[in-house]
Amino acid sequence: MSMLKGVVHNLANQSKRATPNRSRSAGTKLLLSSEERAEALFLPKVRAFCNSTDIAKNEAEVIKHENTFREAGKTKTVFDFKSYMHQKIKSVNRALDAAVPLREPLKFHEAMRYSLLSEGKRVCPVLCIAACELVGGQESTAMPAACGMEMVHAMCMMHDDLPCMDNDTLRRGKLSNHKVFGENVTVLAGYSLVALAFEHMATATQGVHPKTMVRAIGELARLIGPEGAAAGQVLDLLSGGKSDTGLEELEYIHRHKTADFAEAAAIIGAMVGGATNEEINRLRKFSQCIGLLFQVVDDILDVTKSSEQLGKTAGKDLLANKLTYPKMIGIEKSKEYAQNLSKEAKEQLVGFDPEKAAPLLAMADFVLHRQK
Amino acid sequence: MSMLKGVVHNLANQSKRATPNRSRSAGTKLLLSSEERAEALFLPKVRAFCNSTDIAKNEAEVIKHENTFREAGKTKTVFDFKSYMHQKIKSVNRALDAAVPLREPLKFHEAMRYSLLSEGKRVCPVLCIAACELVGGQESTAMPAACGMEMVHAMCMMHDDLPCMDNDTLRRGKLSNHKVFGENVTVLAGYSLVALAFEHMATATQGVHPKTMVRAIGELARLIGPEGAAAGQVLDLLSGGKSDTGLEELEYIHRHKTADFAEAAAIIGAMVGGATNEEINRLRKFSQCIGLLFQVVDDILDVTKSSEQLGKTAGKDLLANKLTYPKMIGIEKSKEYAQNLSKEAKEQLVGFDPEKAAPLLAMADFVLHRQK
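Above: the input entities. Below: the structure tokens describing the complete assembly.
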């Protein structure tokens, strides 16, 4: 019971922490009252969907879902998230393909491309682009940073699967990188993708002030490094099998391991798109919620789906005796927490141009309802 | 015999390629004729030392060596390389200690600090600082980049020693990182040091134009990444045991694996110090020679010294059936090549303020004559 109390307490604090800053400071778009927010953003159909507790809803249905909203001067705008994702993933894949051409040494570049170009959700690159577009920037401006995010993400997966880490033979329905290219090439190719991420971001981004670029590069490095995602990964690794770990540690792991990564994608996209500091802070909170949500759902899927359904080894957290939300608070409370995180994420977008916010609103649903 | 011919041909080309650009372009300090160069830089004592073929000269003696030169307005200046290195290494170690404080998760930060702060030559950080000072910059300006170089270097050593790579248990006279902290922590700590290198460089460098910082970050990433040092590491790994590899491949490996790394240190230091493009190009050539020289000497030491003398496992290249200069062209020709590289490196410094060039001139000797 005390564990459940802890969750409730945690959720309450979580909600308090993330209450959006609604001060009417000059030069921002975040000027709506809470009453206006609810009224302006969602028509009943969408609101009902957002309040749904059916986390097992079919993914195909979810991504077909059309967020409908109204705005001053427009009576209705329809947003098709499936088409949006399809188009963005296509652009990202094309850019990734061009960023890592196949050259000598062939095996090395093949190893990088194998993981980088394998079929994936591309949540982080799309988050990066959507954040850029949210504040009025162009897709092309955010694309090098978006590719950089996917490069670092690919490295994480390659290293995570190594025998000395999770020892996984399957990833996205294919053999893990080291099973194809050997552990030594995987270690080097992984590290190379990190270097390439910084190179690509620093040299291929066009039309952004160098001061902004230095800030964005510093943020990326901080959020994926020893105070960010890597700290979460390490604690996740070191806590495996320990029985004396609690919710606080679990929260720390997921906030760093996944949410910091999402934060990097969102705020870097926003920065190169020309965001104000207040807009950047909103996106920090949004992406922290989305990242944590992604991990909570991941934990749930690990115990509710088969390897075939996931395209990777199911039940591996359980086998590795890893800390997970279902293990700590049970499936139902985990689902409830996921719902709250999705709701909280959406609250951060209140006051932005609703048309430009539509992809991120839909993304919060997508992450909540994904089935693999 | 054809192999030796190849070496001679290679050396001749090498010398030709690196002939300094002596065009009297405006705004540079590189304005001396070849006659003036020789006269301006070296007194007979130093010239004799530079021409020495005694690579086995005692290291302590070498670093005590005083480069003596004369310059317009000054009759004589004495440079003590040993004191210079001692002071710079002390500064670098202090900065590294501050850049990676011991914090939670403790084991993770201990792993990073274990390799990063272990006794080392600090050649790359000092090269970075010396290049900055050569063009009129301050040590403090180059320090974050210098620390970044050592962080990436530490990662390379940590990953190189892994069982799936060189499988080495000894490094700098201590147990390898994974032998103390476990392979999984070593992989993550290594990657984290790379992220930290970029973060530290981007956030801690003071007084440098952001445009220069973006360029320097891009160069660092390129030179340590899949077109730079990592490509050399991979080819080194993949060529082990093959009998059909030649000098060209060996040169490629060392130029990328080590020389690209040295190049990054030198040109980034020069950039943040305010160098012109011509000065940067000189430092590219200088550091390529120094880097290659370091590797040639490394190959020689591997077969001529004991593990105790080196502080790491001796003869490991031979055991791993790796390509090395002694294996390809013999010890004597390798020593001759090392001499030529040192000479060629020094030629790149002709025309710079001799007092400011003194540390780099001495470094060329130090790398040539090091005993471990």
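Note for the figure: Chain B touches chain A through 52 residues (CB under 8 Å).
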